[in-house]
Amino acid sequence: MARSFPVTPVLLAVLLASAWRAAAASSMAADRIDRLPGQPAVDFPMYSGYVTVDEVAGRALFYWLQEVPPEAQPAPLVLWLNGGPGCSSVAYGASEELGAFRIRPYGATLFLNETTTANILFLDSPAGVGFSYTNTTSGDNRTGHYTSQLSQLVHRNNIGIAKPIINFKGFMVGNAVTNDHTDYASMFESWWNHGLISDATYQLLRATCLNDSLMHPSPAYNASQNAAAPEQGDIDVYSIYTPLCNQTSAWMKGSYDPCTESHSTVYYNRPDVQRARHANVTGINYTWVTCSDPLYDHWGDSPRSMLPIYKELIAAGLRIWVFSGDTDAVIPLTSTRYSIDALGLPTATSWSRGSPLVKIVGGWSQVYKGLTLVTIRGAGHEVPLHRPRQAFILFQHFLQGKAMPKNGTTS
Fold it and tell me: Is 257 helix (H, G, I), strand (E, B) or coil?
């Protein structure tokens, strides 16, 4: 099975519009994208380029900001971070999930995706991911902390400030690593329930792996995984019921495209695309990749549980949503539910089905005191890739702080 997890965390940070634009004004003009190669006409501005985060270490992160049309401002600012660790938010969030465009086969042209009513900042983090870089191996690794930890940091720095620069409202994560013990136990259970592994392998995994770290597995865990892989077979563990990418098969318009990573790899390695996006400005001869294997292999900043941070931020009254596609076998819905159960939160609104499309159940939701769980029926690890309409509705309701539509309603 694949070893990288392009987790889909989202951090909602509503900035005071004047402060945001005043701080960015000096570089906005230089970073504005005139037009991307193969791009259809749009009525909203985009910016991309580098933000230096450590001058001494020569470290800079690459961003892509997609704003709403001017008449829709002011609008929330959302920071989108994909996980891995080591996977590009440009490759996944912007190009396969909630970005303005999708990429056609062979990186030829772009087509419009359904957009949101928020300004979205896609950030390749940490350095070494996508077009982000560092000139040294020293320095602080905090740029690699993901959504829950970043939310905690912003929240703590806002305490006692009447009008903080970051008017932080909350965060949302999807199919995310949360708590190693419950994640492991329920992942193996999900594989077994879906018929992906045998009884013997299920028992072997439970016996050898339950106390392991997801990011730093033991040799016993790796041996057990090696036993599970041939039983699972040649399937997409990120979406177990969809086909694998076959470069020889035709892509049919309107259907699910399993080759999106191949398309983005071709497109973002085009020199004209890099020039238009102010990327790789020094012209280094290297191949852009969706995920960095060296960064994943040497990652050392991974707490085994996010639950203490969740408890702190729930107590602070932040808006916290967790969503899960129910055909993901990497961080399955079972894992998410066990991790949330471990928080011991009281239920505010019981489990209910949602029907964002007429006569079609789109998923289910449950509202706890301090946290909302939403499942998306038929979606894999990247929910917007597999169920774009349901993901759009989910994102809009999160931004508005409204409960998900249920039992046939569309509000």
Answer: coil
Tokens representing residue 111 in the block? 């087509």
**Interatomic CA distance for residues 202 and 359, integer angstroms:** 37
Residue 262 lies in a domain: no
Closest CA to 213 of 293, 128, 126, 300: 300
Half-sphere exposure of residue 339: CA atoms within 13 angstroms, side-chain side: 31
Q: CA quadruple 314, 301, 185, 352: dihedral positive or negative?
A: positive
The tally of domains found in the chain comes to 1
Cα 220 to Cα 193: distance, rounded to the nearest angstrom: 23
pLDDT at 385 over 80: yes
Proportion of the chain above pLDDT 70, given as a percent: 82
DSSP bridge pairs for 122? 64, 80
Distance separating alpha carbons of residues 88 and 291, to the nearest angstrom: 6
Contact 330, 83 (CB under 8 A): no
Is 237 within the bounds of a domain? no
Residue 87 has pLDDT above 70, yes or no: yes
Report yes or no on 233 lying in a domain: no
Residue 39 lies in a domain: yes
| Residues contacting residue 346 through CB under 8 Å, at least 6 positions apart | 368, 369
Between CA 140 and CA 277, with CA 119 as vertex, the angle to 5 degrees is 70
Residue 154's domain comprises 8-181+299-400
DSSP calls for 62-131: EEEEEPPPGGG-S--EEEE---BTTB-TIIIIIIIISSSEEE-GGG--EEE----SSEEEEEE-STTSTT
Q: What Å distances lie between residue 320 and 91, 148, 361, 377, CA to CA?
A: 25, 10, 23, 21
The residue whose two tokens read 């099975």 is 1
Confidence of residue 83 (pLDDT cuts 50, 70, 90): confident
pLDDT computed for residue 284 by the predictor: 78
CB 178 within 8 A of CB 306: yes
- Which residues 6+ apart lie within 8 Å of 325 measured at CB? 174, 175, 239, 333, 375, 376, 378, 379, 380, 381, 382, 383, 386, 387
CB 171 within 8 A of CB 401: no
Alpha-helix residue ranges (DSSP H) falling in 168-299: 180-193, 199-209, 219-232, 260-268, 271-276, 293-297
CATH number assigned to the domain comprising residue 29: 3.40.50.1820
* Rg over CA atoms, the chain: 21
